[in-house]
Amino acid sequence: MQNMYLCIDLKTFYASVECVERGLDPFSTNLIVADPSRGKGSICLAVSPKMKMLGVKNRCRVFEIPPNIKYITAMPRMKKYIEYSANIYGIYLKYFSKEDIHVYSIDEAFIDVTNYLKMYNMNAIELAKTIVKNIYDEYKITAAAGIGTNLYLAKIALDITAKHSAGNIGYLNEEKYIKELWKHKPLTDFWQVGKGIEKRLNKMGLYTMQDVASCEQKRLYKEFGINAELLIDHAWGKESCKMEDIKKYTPKNNSISNSQVLFKDYNFEKARLLVKEMVELGSLRLVEKKLATKTVCLYIGYSKNVINATGGTEHTLNYTNSYTELTKAFLKIYDKTTNRKMPIRRIGISFVNVIEEPGVQLNLFVDQEKMEKERKLESAIVGIKNKLGRNSILRGMNLEEDANTIMRNKLIGGHNSG
Description:
Blueprint: E1 5-10, H1 13-21, E2 31-33, E3 46-47, H2 49-53, E4 72-74, H3 78-95, E5 101-105, E6 108-112, H4 117-120, H5 124-139, E7 143-148, H6 151-161, E8 169-172, H7 174-181, H8 195-203, H9 209-214, H10 217-224, H11 228-235, H12 243-248, E9 255-266, H13 268-288, E10 291-302, E11 310-320, H14 323-337, E12 344-352, E13 355-356, H15 368-388, H16 405-408, E14 411-412, E15 415-416
Parallel strand pairs: 2-4, 7-8
Antiparallel strand pairs: 1-6, 1-7, 2-3, 5-6, 9-12, 10-11, 10-12, 10-13, 14-15
């Protein structure tokens, strides 16, 4: 039996939800999802299909929208989008087992339909149409679907073929892929080919997937190393990964990361406060999940990229989730590596080599009684926040000028929760 996969995408999802909530048609309404309080430099998280028809792109800045286009601005509401996404996932579960569904993002999912076609007495296109219609009938959200004989082809059928197909549904097998898309440009339309990879391929004289497939493999391995294997397979429309491989996958190293782009330039001292706040939120997350970390990493990006970011600097310590210990480690990196004269615009922190707390070995060089008291205190803080809200209990530093934990606690994924 030939494998068959669907890749379903909820079109211009955030903007479509906002239109539906207002009783408007996304295909005849000019609407953007952006935070007006951030000014004309605010990024549009989504624009309605009608805006796209007028040449406005997703992720553009508000000031980039032509002044002659009149539009509605909708404040981002992440809770509402998550609610819609969960409800639509419920539609998938009416037809398929969760073991055959992989949620790729809030608005996109892969589904292995191989064993369902006979059950429903449908071919893959008929089944895809059924799902797309069900989503629209229930929630008035328009979906597109890619169908492929492997996961890669399903994704490419969605990203390239479905856009030019009736009913927003595309289908590819390896033969059809070679026939119809081998000469397609640009290469960045293909899954996992970014601008950097495209630029390197172009330097090698390769501009299409046919060029990549015809290229001497030795050249590709010399340029891309082990990653050339995936590039070569995709050039031929092949993909060895299956749904069961995704479900079985466990990463060798677990990590937790958090980052933010600041609304304005921060000097060295004020950004140092934000690092401490971010470490606080990160340590509470570790405590809540009963995890501990052995390695921490800090990234600092400067305003207008006037100098290269300082990133990738790691500090190793004994396994811990203590705010006190983690703050010391991060500030040690910060004070040592951060340029004190340049304005700061981006901060990122990572907890690397994360494991479950019960497996942590005690550190003989710290006061264990003191650490246990801190652990109990932080566990109590987590309990209060979970019950009464993330801003129900705060540290004094959270009230200082230019601190932003209170504001960030109101966000989901860096955006207004709604």
